[in-house]
Amino acid sequence: MRNRWNQQEAARLDDSDTVGQRVYSSRLLGADSDLVLHGGGNTSVKGTLTDVFGETVEVLFIKGSGWDLRTIEASGFPATRLPHLRQLAQLPCLNDTEMMRQLRLALLDPGGPTPSVEAILHALIPHRFVDHSHADAVVTLSNTPEGEQILHELYGDEILILPYLMPGFLLARQVAAATEGADWSRLRGIVLMHHGIFTFHDQAKTSYDTMIELVTRAEDFIKSKGATSLARSSTSLSQSDLRYLSLLRKQAGVCYGGPVLIRCNLSESAAGFATLDNAEALVQRGPLTPDHTIHAKAFAAVFDDDPVSELETFTAEYEHYFRQHAGPEHQRLDAMPRWGIWRRRGLICLAPNNKRLGIVADISRHTIKAIQQAENLGGWTTLSRKSLFEVEYWELEQAKLKSSNPPETMQGKVALVSGAASGIGKACMEALVQQGAVVVALDTSEIDLSPNINDSVLAQQCDVTCSSQIDKALSQAVQHFGGLDLLVSNAGCFPPSALIAELPDDSWEQSVEVNMSAHMRLLRACIPLLQNGFDPAVVIIGSKNVPAPGPGAAAYSVAKAGLNQLARIAALELGGYGIRVNTVHPDAIYDTALWTQELLAERAAHYGMSPAEYRSANLLGAELNSSDVASVVVNLLGPAFSKTTGAQIAIDGGNERVV
Ligand code: ZN
Predict the structure, then answer these.
(1) d(CA 600, ligand 1 centre) in Å
(2) Secondary structure (DSSP) of 475-538
(3) Distance between CA 562 and CA 559 in Å, rounded?
(4) Which residues contact 281 (CB under 8 A, 6 or more apart)?
(5) Residue 407 in this model has a pLDDT that exceeds 80
(6) How far is the CA of 571 from the centre of ligand 1 (A)?
(7) At 461, is the secondary structure helix, strand, or coil?
């Protein structure tokens, strides 16, 4: 475990700026996925503040809920009255609702984030800095039959090792009881079996250093036993595997109650794990740390080649688990598995949106490594399903998943956009991501992605005139997102103006190829995926030249007219599958790659206008751009047009030849 403390960076912080130091070393913990993953772990520092009456108040700056250690800032550590927290720790019992109310009551700023559910435990530890992680190596050791013994030998009596107890007030009480009369100056940390590790000190650096030292000791032990070797294998997917994934996605969406995303992990280590004889039993045993249950559920699924029966098996098992442990106050969550092994191939992850999919993918990757190490050390030993249920259905954990924002319109939807590097395609890609969809973006040119949409886009260089390149791109799309719901067939070219009498063969043929045949090839390849899509829809980018052609553009206009006919026939053929096919006819969109300044000047001159006049020469006198087209396209793909197919919509500011 690498110690990331950088003396130079840390020296920039004032000695008195304890919250600044807290932010700095919290981020160091957050930077290492072997220590904490996605909102796991928490940290605090004790200090004083002057309240509105001018009185000095002892406070605990504790990680607020909703913050991630990797990116936390000073405002993520709300000041909470320390005496109030310590007094709460004296209570014989405190239910969750009351505890959360009390934590909020203890805030100095009532508008601050709710303190971590471990705030009372942090308050009990007398040291100023407290660091808590779910370090893989430590938890892995605690998840083995001899784990407790090994940890005792590894850490001696400087570290308190406590059996598992539900996080929250009960855990705080357990620590209070276990440390009553203890000499805290001799204690350097606490290991909670099956959960994680705490370290503490009056100095931020020492508390962090201790965490790294103790976790390194656990890692070294695992290495010394030769337990780090992991199974490896290689895998590649067949056409029927891809069909399986898109069917699985469809069926999983039924389990979940809306569109979901799927991602395969076909890495050597995932494929190796999937070849283990007992992999199926291992993934159903339980998670690395109970905190993972809120994202990944208490156990995983087994996938092979029959999505319906495999999901039924998981759902029945989940139903049984719920009925066994639920009280009258519980409502069953959706029964969709969040990950599972895919026999002989690797892992499959499932989630309602791309962010959660990334979290599940990370959790499953860490889990299969921990499982194999624990197996090498005597056996993967997890918590009972009862204990896992308590955490998965703990209202305070579930609250972490709830967002105050309603889900985006296109959450869980997968869209494919061709010609996405610039102009209308790029605008459509960005608008779809903004609505919550993930996008498979194709172009022959490199696609430049802004950091805010990077995670939601699978960009691929692909020439849509080539069927084999399309197949390859779709195969990647299915492995990365599970299928396809929406298609924006946009890629096109605008050949140089030429009268028919002078039209070169290659110009004609290229336009027919790019502006017509390539759309057929892309649509043809996408149809089997769209048939398994959620409210599937296609938008073809046509042209004003279809209803109102101009001289000198035969190659372009004829190909687009052919494309228009293709779209109409597609609407006829695909309606029975619920796939909508509509066309937009943009005109005068000059911020696209088709239009250069020279071409604009030439066309304007052709009509005896200046470029500025030409740009707004329409009934509304409006200048149009790519985002205007994208807005119409996204609406056509969405619920507003769920009953419309075979339509052609102009986006041209009004053209008297079309009207
Ligand atoms: Zn924890």
Answers:
(1) 62
(2) HHHHHHHSS--EEEE-----PPPB-GGG--HHHHHHHHIIIIIHHHHHHHHHHHHHHTSSS-EE
(3) 5
(4) none
(5) no
(6) 53
(7) strand
Residue 230 Cα to ligand 1 middle (Å)? 26
* Residue 105 three-state SS: helix
Residues that place a CB less than 5 A from ion ligand 1: 196
Closest CA to 268 of 228, 232, 229: 232
Position 426 scores a pLDDT of 97
- Mean pLDDT estimate for the chain: 95
Ligand 1 geometric centre to CA of 588 (Å): 58
Q: How far is the CA of 125 from the centre of ligand 1 (A)?
A: 15
Task: Please report, to the nearest 10 degrees, the dihedral formed by the alpha carbons of residues 267, 269, 270, 275 taken in order.
Answer: 120
Non-local (6+) Cβ contacts of 643 within 8 A are none
Residue whose C-alpha is closest to residue 214's, from 179, 188, 187, 182: 188
- Whether 447 shows a pLDDT value over 70: the answer reads yes
Distinct helix (H) and strand (E) counts, the chain: 25, 18
Q: How far is the CA of 39 from the centre of ligand 1 (A)?
A: 10
Distance CA 26, CA 351 (A): 28
Task: Report d(CA 455, CA 546) in Å as an integer.
Answer: 37
Distance CA 500, CA 508 (A): 10
- Tell me the pLDDT tens digit for each residue of 462-516: 999 999 999 999 999 999 999 999 999 999 999 998 999 999 999 999 999 999 9
For 275-304, write each residue's pLDDT tens digit: 999 999 999 999 999 999 999 999 999 999
Ligand 1 centroid to 636 CA: how many Å? Answer: 46
The pTM is what?
0.93
| Contact of 206 with 245, CB cutoff 8 Å | no
Pinpoint the alpha helices (H) of 543-596. 554-574
Closest CA to 20 of 80, 81, 61: 61
- Is the pLDDT at 176 greater than 80? The verdict is yes
Report the alpha-carbon distance of residue 584 to residue 599 in Å, rounded: 23
Structure tokens at 131: 């660091």
